[in-house]
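Structure first, sequence second, as always.
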């Protein structure tokens, strides 16, 4: 039997970044720019959020946005094993909620729970439609402004 084709690296990155952007939108944090062009820092893509809105957010909500990248990537393709970028996101999530845990085990459990939260939110049909729409736009245009992302998410969320 033929194996299904491997999803491209670009697709994985596009879904990853779309996951961050859609969860940020859901939690009312504006996205400034999303891209699947490497930014030179070793990441293959990036999502820039409105910094002060992000800081004002509850720590767990911030962590959910950070973990939303890998959650979207894994929902898109569970077999895709490349989780570069996931490590940076985990560190960001840890920076946000690390102070809530007393032991490494507690930290692990907390991060796993928040990762599951991100996954559950993105699995909602309305949010997943938005992720798909942003990912497709990213694959076509490589970089999107916050305004473009906003428009795409609003349009995708309205569709039935
Ligand atoms: Zn990420």
């Amino acid at each position: 039997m033929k194996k299904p084709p491997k999803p491209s690296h670009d697709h994985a990155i596009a879904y990853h970044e779309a996951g961050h952007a859609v969860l940020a939108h859901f939690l009312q944090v504006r996205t400034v720019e999303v891209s699947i062009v490497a930014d030179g820092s070793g990441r293959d893509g990036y999502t820039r959020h409105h910094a002060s809105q992000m800081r004002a957010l509850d720590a767990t909500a911030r962590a959910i946005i950070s973990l939303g990248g890998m959650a979207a990537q894994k929902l898109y393709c569970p077999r895709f094993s490349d989780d570069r970028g996931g490590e940076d996101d985990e560190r960001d999530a840890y920076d946000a909620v690390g102070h809530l845990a007393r032991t490494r085990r507690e930290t692990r459990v907390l991060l796993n729970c928040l990762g599951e939260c991100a996954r559950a939110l993105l699995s909602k049909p309305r949010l997943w439609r938005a992720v798909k729409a942003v990912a497709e736009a990213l694959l076509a245009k490589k970089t999107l402004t916050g305004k473009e992302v906003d428009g795409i998410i609003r349009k995708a969320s309205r569709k039935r």
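Margin note: The chain has one domain: 9-158.
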